[in-house]
Amino acid sequence: MVCQSGHYVRDPFTLKQIMLSSALRRQSRPLARIIRDFVLFKRPVVALVLGSALLLSLLAVTQHSTSYDPKTLPKTEKN
Prior knowledge:
Blueprint: H1 14-27, H2 30-37, H3 39-42, H4 44-65
């Protein structure tokens, strides 16, 4: 919006925009609304960092639970 002096200013009628967006949101399908409003889709870098942290922690837990411990294996005797 441009004021009388020619400077750009914000639109003071944001309530109108909020009402319009909420009306459009009510008209859309629920799954489309969830996908559109999901924060991680708006910030893919955050999603990448969280996904990597989740994957690395899952790998660490799996590695720890399936680690090879030679002390627990029974020893075989030679004949």
